[in-house]
Specification:
- The structure holds two protein chains of two kinds.
- In chain A, the strands form two sheets. In chain A, strands 1, 3, 4, 7, 8 and 9 form a six-stranded mixed beta sheet that branches.
- The N and C termini of chain A lie far apart (29 Å).
- In chain A, 0% of the residues lie in helices and 43% in strands.
- Chain B contains no helices and eleven strands.
- In chain B, strands 2, 4, 5, 6, 9, 10 and 11 form a seven-stranded mixed beta sheet that branches. A four-stranded antiparallel beta sheet of chain B has the order 1-3-8-7, with no helix packed on it.
- Chain B is globular, with a radius of gyration of 13 Å.
- Chain B is an all-beta fold.
- In chain B, a hairpin with a 5-residue loop joins strand 4 and strand 5.
- The chains are: A mainly beta, B mainly beta.
- At the A-B interface, strand 3, strand 7 and strand 8 of A face strand 5 and strand 10 of B.
Chain lengths: 111, 122
């Protein structure tokens, strides 16, 4: 069982918006603004999409946005495109000795 | 261009040891924390271990604590993972990843290698 909870799957049609949630505790998501999101296409290494809750690395489209409320972080993708179909993982810094925890991942299907 | 190239994976029997290496280039290696993240076949990502720029801060996942040891050689721009007492559940693709922030462990990984596969089986 993963430390952070994500829905197993979400789906949306091209042009629509979807949101993926990531629920933790006050020891991780709720306690720090060190939440990040990764996109992983099949057979590829993960790619950083969002860091520090809502910041986008250069080159990431502004269709991707992040937010946080309490112990739950969210990734929103607006204007869905076919190439957005992938697995998405959240992660957070944690006060435990493990330092970093991941969510179980969410498979995004673009219908 | 940042490059992270893992090596050292392979097939190993349960209880045996393996040492993974990650050769880094394209950035000032000793300015950044580094991490190992693994992914079992068909499963999600699992953070394994991280080490700060000067090895002053090190962390391990509970699942590997006491069996795995992370280290780095800044003179060689290299990261290592010594894996002892390997179990079937350690079977995974092991990624080397660069921490995004300067110095300590922030937990953001802005560059990843392509991974090296470790298979633990008799």
């Amino acid at each position: 069982q993963s430390a952070l909870t994500q829905p197993a799957s979400v789906s949306g049609s091209p042009g629509q918006s979807i949101t993926i949630s990531c629920t933790g505790t006050s020891s991780d998501v709720g306690g720090y603004n060190y939440v990040s999101w990764y996109q992983q296409h099949p057979g590829k290494a993960p790619k950083l999409m969002i860091y520090e809750v809502s910041n986008r690395p250069s080159g990431v489209p502004d269709r991707f946005s992040g937010s946080k409320s309490g112990n739950t972080a969210s990734l929103t993708i607006s204007g869905l495109q076919a190439e957005d179909e992938a697995d998405y993982y959240c992660s957070s810094y944690t006060s435990s000795s493990t330092h970093v925890v991941f969510g179980g991942g969410t498979k995004l299907t673009v219908l | 261009e940042v490059q992270l190239v893992e090596s050292g994976g392979g097939l190993v029997q349960p209880g045996r040891s393996l040492r993974l290496s990650c050769a880094a280039s394209g950035f000032t290696f000793d300015d950044y924390a580094m991490h190992w993240v693994r992914q079992a076949p068909g499963k999600g990502l699992e953070w394994v271990s991280g080490i700060s720029w000067n090895s002053g801060s090190i962390g391990y996942a509970d699942s590997v604590k006491g069996r795995f040891t992370i280290s780095r050689d800044n003179a060689k721009n290299s990261l290592y993972l010594q894996m002892n007492s390997l179990r079937a559940e350690d079977t995974a693709l092991y990624y080397c990843a660069k921490d995004k922030d300067y110095g300590g462990i922030s937990g953001y990984f802005d560059y990843w290698g392509q991974g090296t596969l470790v298979t633990v089986s008799s």
